[in-house]
Structure formats: structure tokens, C-alpha cells
Amino acid sequence: MSKYRFILLYAVLGILFISCNDWLDVNPETEQKEKEQFSSYRGFCTALTGCYMAMGNTDVYGQKLTMSDIELLAGLWYVKEESYGDQSVNYYLKMHDYKQDKVRKAVQTIYSKLFNVIVQANKIIANAETNAEAFPDEATRSVIMGEAYAIRAYCQLDVLRLFGDVPNGNGGKVSLPYSEVTAFNDRIVRYDFDSYAEKLLSDLKKAESLLKDNDPIFSYAFEDLNNPANIELDDTYMGYRQSRLNYWAVKALQARAYLYLGQKEEAYLAAKAVIDATDADGVPVMELAGDEDRTAGYHACPNECLFYLSKYDVKTVAKILIGGADVDARADNLYTTLDCLNELFPENKDLDTRYTTGWNKNLKSYGNSGFAAIKKYYFADDAEDLALYYQIIPMLRMSEVYLIAIETTADVEEANSLYADYLLYGCGVALNHEVFDAQTNRTEVLLPEYRREFFAEGQMFYAYKRAGASRMLWCDDEITDEVYVLWSCVNTEFNP
């Protein structure tokens, strides 16, 4: 199967899953009965592909939890106070006005679609546990189950980061559902923060153990697996590991989770494992490539993605971000001002490829200049290898792994060395001095890097939340715990 046929499969399956409206309504109209669905290995493959497609829905990571709503919560987009109609929700999100019906509806949709993905993953796990004979071998079953556990953990972590208590804050206020159910009438058990964290970390450990030694990434490089026809791969479905939650992506996800939970030593060990990983020939499994990618026009940094979502229509979806042309902004576009962009890059901007290549600085709003639009998901329609380099949404990148290791290492010298590598190979900036000493609050120093690095990838609100930040750049009001906990916006039987 060529890479383009593979992407086409994604697109077709995406159509099947788009019709899922209710959070427990995980069966598309054309879906086989569950027993028939999971009677064959190809049925499991179809279901797993459907999970990834559901993650790429615009109400989840296909837009709202990467480009738009979550970034508005972090105060990253410029919004006029006089926004009206459908666009008023952008203003209310940025102002953290959770009493507005439009905000509650938007957040409710995200919540529902997250659990839609989770329940689909649960069905795969449950059926794979009881139907081993459907798989060609145990290794293949382990990979399918490992990915399903990882998908569940990825989404449940964001349920915690969006709706749960502030880490190390005045917790105990919110108990959250951690879904392991597959039936429509099964009630999800709710957990306090610590118990929820235990369930999450357990899922990640399970995913790691299932993928360990079974993932094709232990036999082939990411680049080779992106061209499975060119290697001796018996099952081409096991190719394209960057678009799947592979073993190294799970380790990166562990690092993200441990950092959020305040377990710095564990976060460091997981991040360093990814950084130090090599193949049998001693070649790094994955390296920083942000500077090289952006210079080449790959604004989403595909060559340093440990996990990305393949999304063939990403350019269409991302039109709200405008892209790379000299254009006038519409009312529904998301952009920032040049003044804010200069605050985002106060130093070395002319050397930093995130600034020099990643933004359209000639945008006009209603005929007035002084605005900028990010080009992260913009590309020419005639660009080569669209599926591999452009039609993607980054979900886990080496840049984040480096930032986690920098923040959590106990060795100040190592922190400075890793930071120098991150700036040089990730951003194109040569650092000629040490930034950290024993007294440096590395979390505070690195928060601006999260803003610069992951703009339109949906990570800044969570970075603010785990840091307990009382201020957000470009937000005038003091930020309280209530701003960070969106549980009040959820109105379901699981939040009576």
C-alpha cells in the first residue's frame, strides 16, 4: 500500500466516524456489528484507524485542541472586544467567561468528542484481550493493544489538563471520569486527582510494555517505515509509525504526563530515554529538526515529530489561521498583532527560524496593517510529498522532549547543554552563554519557549496551568484556579 493509498484510507474512514454525535455513540451508521467488526485482524486495523481519525476531528485535535479554542484560552490570539455573532465565542474564550452559553457549548463538545475517542479505544482493548485468534501473531496484537492504551491515555491526560484541578494546588475539588467502559449503559467511575493520575500512568506503562520490542520501530527507522514498500515489512499496516502512537511517542507522552503531575525525576528519565535512543547502528532514533524543517518550508516540523495526526484536509481546516499569503483578514480568522509578535520574540528574532519563516507579517485587518498570521499549517498546493511533510498536525515533538529534560534534569550543566542544542538545532539560534544556574527557576524561563515553539499546537494553556501562572501574556486579568478548571462547563450525566 502506497503512502497515498494509506492516507486515502484515513480519509474514507474519517467520513465514517464524523457522524458520531453522542459521546457514547461510537458506531457509525455503516459500521458492522461489534462482533463482526472484531472477528478479523483487518477489523481491528479499521477500528484503530478510526480512532486516529476521530482524534483528528475538528472538535478535538483537528482544530479546537490545537489551533483555536485551546489557544484562545491561553490568550494567544488577538480578538476584538466588539466580536459578534458566531465569532463572539472567541472573545468569551479569551476572557475566560465560562458562564456564556457559547463557551459552555464549545467546551462540552470537546469533552464529548474526547470521550468518543476514548470509548472507541476501549472497544479495541476489550476485544483484543478476548480474541487473540483474530491476529496473525502475538506481537501484532500487542502493537494494536499498545496503541489503543496510548490513545486512551493521550485523551485522558487532556481531560485532566483541561477539566481537572491545578496540579499541586488546592486540589480535591474535582473528581473526573476515567473511562474503561465499552457499553452504552455502563457508568464511568470518577476519581480524585491522585487516583486519576494512577490510572493514567498505569495505562501508559501498559502501552509501553505492549509496544516494547514489538513495535516495528525497533527494527526500522521512522524514515524507512514511511515508505513500507521499500522495506521487508510483512504487514504494511505497521508502517507510518510517526502517524501512530509508537513506542517512542509513548515515552514522550510519559514525560509530558510526569511533568504535569510534578514528578520531575520520572519526567526526566522518560525524556532522556527518547533523546538518547539509538538504533542498532548507533544512529539516533529521532533528533531535533525544527530549524532544518522550517527553513525547508515544513512549518509543522515533521522530521522531529514522534507522533502526528495525518489530516489530508488540514489546509482547509487551518484557513482560520490564514497562512502565508499577503491577505486581508476576515472576521473568522485567528491572528495576532505585530506588537504581540515582537513580544513573543524579544531577542534574536532575526536569527530564530520560528520568527523568520513561520509567520506572515504582512497581514491586514480590515485594510489596516500591523498584524501577523502563523504559517504552521500553510503550504503550496503543488508541494511534493504532501502526506508526509505538510498534511499533518504535530502531537508530540522532540522540541517538547528537550524542554522537559531541560526543566527536570538535576544537573545544571546538562540543562545548559541541552538548551543550547535545542536553540541551535530547533530554532537556528547559537547560544554563547549559560542561561541556568542552581538558583534559576527553569519553569519560568522556559514558559516563553512553549509560547514560541508550540503556537497553534495547543500546549500553552496546560503549561500555564501546571506552573500555576497568575498571569498570561496578553491577558489583563489575574488568572485564578477557576480559570484553569473548565469542569463547570461540562453538563452531562457524569457531571450532575
Q: Care to describe what's here?
A:
With 496 residues, this protein is of the alpha+beta class. It has two domains: 3-214 and 459-489, Serine Threonine Protein Phosphatase 5, Tetratricopeptide repeat, CATH 1.25.40; 277-452, no CATH class. 46% of the residues lie in helices and 7% in strands. It has 21 helices and eight strands. It has helices at residues 3-18, 34-37, 41-55, 69-73, 88-94, 101-130, 138-163, 193-211, 222-225, 247-260, 264-276, 290-295, 314-317, 338-344, 353-356, 386-389, 398-408, 412-427, 442-453, 460-467, 481-484, and strands at residues 176-177, 190-191, 305-310, 328-329, 336-337, 359-365, 368-374, 392-397. The strands form three sheets. A four-stranded mixed sheet has the order 4-6-7-5. It has a two-stranded antiparallel ribbon with strand order 1-2. It is globular. The protein starts with a helix and ends in a 12-residue tail after the last helix. Mean pLDDT is 90; it is low at 1-31.
Largest sheet: 4 strands, mixed
* Mean pLDDT score: 90
Query: Which geometry do the CA atoms define?
Result: globular
- Can you count the helices? 21
- Give the amount of beta strand, in percent: 5-15%
Count of the separate structural domains: 2
- Rounded to the nearest angstrom, the radius of gyration is 22 Å
